[in-house]
Design a protein that fits this description.
This protein is mainly α and about 110 residues long. The protein has 2 domains: about 70 residues, 434 Repressor (Amino-terminal Domain); about 35 residues. The protein has 8 helices and no strands. The chain is elongated, with a radius of gyration of 19 Å.
């Protein structure tokens, strides 16, 4: 039940940030009146959540509360460490990539 409440809370926050109401969002997406509010207690369909995520240009992981990163791609492209690792990975063999992941997991096991 908590994840659904978080979903609704996130959608409400996105509406507030964009100066629209939940009712306006529902009209803009051709949803039935009160549908989003029902998501506090029920299971929304994947296509409806996807439509909301696209409307606000956020990832499904963000809208569902799995991450605080709104758009995964934008975040990755701005992170110099991730970009450096990506360039190194492209030059590595499969064995080298496996060793790198093993070292990272050993060094930062509590983060994986």
């Amino acid at each position: 039940m908590e994840k659904i409440t978080n979903l609704y809370t996130t959608i409400k926050q996105l509406c507030d940030e964009n100066n629209i109401t939940i009712a306006q969002l529902e009209r803009n997406l051709s949803f039935s009146e009160g549908l989003v509010s029902k998501w506090r207690y029920g299971n929304p369909s994947c296509d409806k959540i996807t439509a909301v995520a696209k409307y606000f240009n956020v990832s499904l992981d963000f809208i569902s509360g799995r991450t605080s990163i709104r758009q995964m791609g934008e975040h990755i492209l701005r992170d110099e460490y991730i970009m450096s690792i990506q360039l190194a990975i492209e030059r590595m063999s499969d064995d080298e990539r496996n060793k790198m992941m093993m070292l990272l997991k050993l060094s930062f096991h509590d983060k994986f």
